Amino acid sequence: MAKLVGAILYIFILLLHLHCHQCKAAAAARTSFVHGSGGRATKAKTAAATAAAVRAMFVFGSSLVDNGNNNHLNGSGVRADYAPYGVDFPLGATGRFSNGRNVIDALGELLRLPAAGLLPPFADPSTRGRAALHGVNFASGGSGILDLTGKNTGEVLSLKQQITNFEAVTLPDLRAHLQGATTTGHKMKGQDFVDQCYLPKSLFVIGTGGNDYLLNYFKPGSGPTRALLSEFTSSLLIKLSNHLQRLYDLGARKFVLFSIQPLGCTPVVRTFLNITGDTCIEQMNHAALLFNSGLRSIVKNRNSGVRSHMPGASFVYVNSYKIISDMIHHPAKYGIRKTSRACCEVSRGGVLCQKGGPICSDRTKYAFFDGLHPTDVVNARLARKAYGSNSPDEVYPINVKKLAML
Predict the structure, then answer these.
(1) What is the sign of the dihedral through the CA atoms of 118, 133, 258 and 50?
(2) pTM for the whole thing?
(3) Hey, is 210 helix, strand or coil?
(4) How does strand 395-396 pair with strand 314-318?
(5) Which UniProt keywords apply (predicted)?
(6) How far is CA 64 from CA 80, 211, 241, 337, 373, in A?
(7) Number of domains in the chain
(8) What is the domain range of residue 70?
(9) Which residues are catalytic?
(10) ∠ at Cα 171 (167, 176), nearest 5°?
(11) What is the pLDDT of residues 205-216, one digit of tens each?
C-alpha cells in the first residue's frame, strides 16, 4: 500500500512538473481567449482550461465561508454542527452556516476542484498530506480582521491565526509532498514546484470584515468610547492590507476578496432594532459600504501597482453587497418571497438556528437561513456572479474564471 501511495504521489509531482514547463504557453493561450479571440471550439474548452489552471483554493474568513473549523474548537460558541443546518446538504450538518452550500462550496464546484469543489477544514486532523493538495479552508465563524473580534462568543480563529495556520502547518506539509520528500525516495530537482507553479496557480479567497462591525464596533456598550466610523474602517483596511501582504510573502499571487454583505438588511439586525417590514438599517449598511469602497480601492491600487509591494499579484473584488442587495430588493426577479425573516427559528441572540428547531418548508424562497447567513440559493448565485459576471459593478476588474486562467 505504501508503494502504491508513493507511486501515485510521484505521478502527481511528475504531472505538476510537466505543467510548469507549459505554464507560460498555456497562460498565453488562455489570455488570448479572455480577450475575445478564438471560436466556439475554444469556448467549449474553457471549463477544462479553468480547471487545469487552478491548482488549489485556500480560504480565510468568517462564518460566511467557514465549512467546519469551529466544530473542532472546544470553546467555540459559534457552531453549525447540528440540525437544522445542512438540511439540504448531502453530508448533513457539517459546520456550514447554511441549509446547504456556502459560497465557497459553490465556487469550488464552478472551478471544478476535486470532490465536487468541497474543501477540507484545516482544523480536521485528517486535513494533512494529500488531503490538502487541492486546497484548505481556514475560516472561523465569529472571527474578524481584528484579533479581538468575536472573542466574546468563545474561541475563534482570527484572520491572523488562520494565516499562521497556513504558514506553520499547511505550507510546510505541502512543500514536503510537492518538492520530492516522497515515500518512494524520488526527488524532483531544479524546480521549486510550490513557489514557482503551485502557489501562483492557486486562489487565495478572503471573506471577512462583517464581524468587525457586528461583534466589535457596533456591539452594545461600545458607544461612548468608539472611534469615528471612518477612523475605525481605515484602521481595519490597513490591517487587512498587512494580512494580504503576509500571504503574498508566503507565495500567494491570485487573490479573491469578497465584500461585506448588506449588514443592515440581515434579520438579526432588523430584529435587534425591532424593525418591522422590509426596511434595512442604513447606518449598518453605510458602514459596510464604507469598508467595501476601501476594499475595492485596495484591489484597484494593487492591480495598477500604486503603492504596491506585490509585483505579479492579481486581485479580484467581488461585490457581495450589490449581488445580495439585488436579490433582497427585487425578490420576485429571483423567485424569493422572504427577505427580512430567517428560515429557521433562531435562538437567543438572533443569529443561530435553534437546535432541532422548526424551519421553513421551501428554503429556495428565503434569502436568509438564520439571522445572518444566506440560504443555499443566495450563496449559489453569489458564486455564479463571482465566477462569471462581466459587470464591473459585480466583480472588478475581472471575474474569478478569468483570474484562474491568467
Answers:
(1) negative
(2) 0.88
(3) helix
(4) antiparallel
(5) Hydrolase, Lipid degradation, Lipid metabolism, Secreted, Signal
(6) 11, 10, 20, 22, 6
(7) 1
(8) 53-405
(9) 63, 370, 373
(10) 145
(11) 999 999 999 999
